[in-house]
Fold these 3 entries.
Entry 1:
Amino acid sequence: MKNKLISYNIPPMQYWTDCEEMTANGHLLIAGSTGSGKSVLLNSCIYSILKHSPVKAQFAFIDLKYVELANYKHLPHTLAYCTELQETINLLDACIYEMKRRYNLMALQGKKTFDGSTLYIVVDELADLLLTDKNTIKNQLQKIALLGRACKVQLICCTQCPNKQTIPANIIENFTTRVALRCMSAVQSRQILEIKGAENLPRYGQGILRNGCGYTKIAIPLTPEIEIKKRCRFWEQAIPKKIRQ
Ligand SMILES: Nc1ncnc2c1ncn2[C@@H]1O[C@H](COP(=O)(O)OP(=O)(O)OP(=O)(O)O)[C@@H](O)[C@H]1O
Ligand SMILES: [Mg+2]
């Protein structure tokens, strides 16, 4: 009876072979406890973007752990790769400037949506980032979370299970797509999904997805590192960085 709430509210398990849909609809937040597979899912999402819409994607990576996202450093799609706090603040400012530029362009063209590339801002360990300089980063993220969607500036963040002190609720609310991996407690599960249940998931490999359609239990795909490296090498050789920008 432990899983009662999940089995009651959530349709039968759906197996996802890639993460295209997850990254296509607004900001994505991945949360879970240590070792629950956040980085695995984050990498699968990036891989999926590179596979399905490589021509329409740009990336800005924020990797305070230095190594998690290093595979993507030299991709032609990568506009920035930050490992330091000050760099990150400057990068987020540049992203906000880019949003304004895109809105101005949309206004000039009389359009409500932007039809250029999607700029994905990828953050591994959002809670760490917010702990280092809470107010500046929080304000920047709030702006991006609020205004980014229409102009295709999209956040993909993963974080240790948040609490109200580390990640404010109004930032979490702006993530239209949220995936909870295994959490430590029902309180943490509620913080991310607004329902309990993620505390009963296996150690890794499964998650609960919350999006506009409700809740779905999902299997988390692991993309082998060798596949990621192969695809990155392909793009690095296909389009030398200087030409694309
Ligand atoms: N979907 C999965 N399928 C198979 N193995 C997985 C899966 N997800 C995670 N693992 C295993 O669990 C390990 C830890 O995963 P990962 O590094 O993504 O966790 P994390 O949540 O990012 O941890 P941390 O909080 O320490 O950064 C992986 O190296 C892998 O061996
Ligand atoms: Mg990780």
Entry 2:
Amino acid sequence: MSPLLELRDLRKLFPVRDALGRAQGAVRAVDGVSLSVAQGEVLAIVGESGCGKSTLGRLALRLIEPDAGEVRFGGEDLRGLSAAALRARRRDMQLIFQDPFASLDPRMTVEAAIAEPLRLHKVVPRGQEAARVAEWLERVGLRADHARRWPHEFSGGQRQRIAIARALASGPKLVIGDEPVSALDVSIQAQVVNLLQGLIRDLGLTFVLISHDLAVVRHIADRVAVMYLGRIVELGPASQVFGAPKHPYTRALLAAVPGQGAKAPPLAGDVPSPMAPPTGCRFHTRCTFAEAGCREHDPALRGGSHAAACHVFEQLPPAPLARETETGGDRLRRLQAFFSADKPGAAA
Ligand SMILES: Nc1ncnc2c1ncn2[C@@H]1O[C@H](COP(=O)(O)OP(=O)(O)OP(=O)(O)O)[C@@H](O)[C@H]1O
Ligand SMILES: [Mg+2]
């Protein structure tokens, strides 16, 4: 089966100017990313702040234009579409933002917010909008009579539930969640993750989860793409990436999860400037395993269904994380306890 979403060698540069408007160079936010997402798959994109996760998500939905590369949705090249055709495709592609305070218009009632995409895409006849909104409110753990209220009357978790209803009500095929729970309190995060997971399963959604929270990713992703400085450095089934990470960067990221009990070397130093990424392997300046060649040659992603962009991963000692990650991490356990204890209707 052909993938629902296919990205080929995508690139996006952001020009950087000084105070006088003079060009200083460019940030290579996404720098040659190829990736496909199968129908019904949950793919997570992880990596440190600034590595290009959000830019990649926005490119995938064509909210911003790539400088180079292809975006195919259902086999169709989105670049060739007219504005009208792209608007029609919007029904199939939705984005859930991190900040539920910013993503809901304070001047719109909950009903208006959820009904807007229904109306825009003519999902239901006008007379049925209110009923559909009520249905969605209940589906996300709120009450039908919440429809008449305003966003400011709700907590962060409730607002995110409203934002989720708004994103899903038009029946999209692909949803990108850009840190959809990061702004919420940890106890509420678990409930909202649980809600999302249930909806993904029930609706058969294809979901791209952008998150720096590895506990959340581990809980819901089928596959994981690890990004570093605009590139994918590891890509594979979640169980393998977490259980037997190949790339030294992934190992270090996992080691940084508190309580993980990992023996992998932690990440040293800051991420280099994305305006001038290191030569050769971009990770070599922070890699404890780097060899001379890593400074010169840019590694390709290799290794089949669980791939890494690293010259030396075969020679590394077995990842010391494999057993610990299966149970490990205080935070992970706390989250898991929440997931299993989630009660329907106990909306945060
Ligand atoms: N509109 C923009 N103009 C200029 N630079 C940008 C713009 N958007 C992103 N960048 C830069 O591109 C790089 C990648 O940013 P991006 O937001 O995609 O990272 P991210 O992985 O989502 O980070 P975070 O985890 O903090 O959300 C960063 O260096 C960022 O500063
Ligand atoms: Mg981001």
Entry 3:
Amino acid sequence: MSAITPSSNTVTTLTTWTILDLLQWTQKYFAEKGIDTARLDAECLLAFVLGVDRMRLYIDYEKPVGEAERATLRELVRRRGTDRVPVAQIIGSKEFWSLDLRVTADVLTPRPDTETLVSAALGLLPDDRAPARILEIGTGSGAVALALASERPRAQVVASDVSAPALAVARENAERCGLLDRVELRQGALFEPVAGQRFDLVVSNPPYLAEAERPSLAPELAHEPDGALFAGPQGLEVLEPLVRQAPDALVPGGGLVVECDPRQADRVAGWCREAGLLSVTKHRDLAGRDRVVAARGGG
Ligand SMILES: C[S@@+](CC[C@H](N)C(=O)[O-])C[C@H]1O[C@@H](n2cnc3c(N)ncnc32)[C@H](O)[C@@H]1O
């Protein structure tokens, strides 16, 4: 790997590369490529290559890194910087709600904002000893279903998805988290896999991007499944039927919690009221935008 001096673009070769050298070089390269999380991504990739956690990099700043590891890092840096593959897909995992989850190109990488969905859902199931029945529609990696199952140890969770490859990843994650005995995976659209059943909580982070937004999206999204992102011309083709059909799948007083684009939140709240749901509330994400709508079924 070479160091490029910022002023002249002259390439100089270091004989010894320390962890600090590699972090600084990679951070600068990613920043030049327009990656907002340049330092974090550099740390994640180097820690992955060295098989250590990120904290160890700081302890071992001055440690030299051998050529074989640098060659591996170079390839990962190229995939991140040039191909714009998300870090989670490169290293094959992502932490969500303190769970270490496997991530592939078949599933949406769980987002920190989706922890708002989990918090709001837990708020509607305050008794952590209750034997609740939970349905997650569109489980992807299983992140939300597994977070809820881990927080509510007596709950039984059904996690559904239209995508069979996504369900395979969710199953692997359920096993990895030791929760497969309480998380049942089913394939199908919306409420079809649980027809006639009722739940204490229905939760979903459905696809909600409009097709027209595609050209303006971050290049990383091209590596995630289309079916996890886009939902028709306005992004509402999954959200709207999901909210309108939810009352038939809730026990009296059961909760519905859905994630949406902040620009959709008022409309989603309106559908909840039109569907006869009560106590409709909006919840903000880490950036303070309305990201989640929650409601309760009537008595
Ligand atoms: C935005 S991703 C959410 C993944 C995961 N729950 C999360 O929050 O990280 C949406 C998921 O919904 C699935 N999906 C799309 N349309 C669906 C439908 N009509 N019924 C059920 N699942 C659907 C996609 O395959 C995808 O896995």
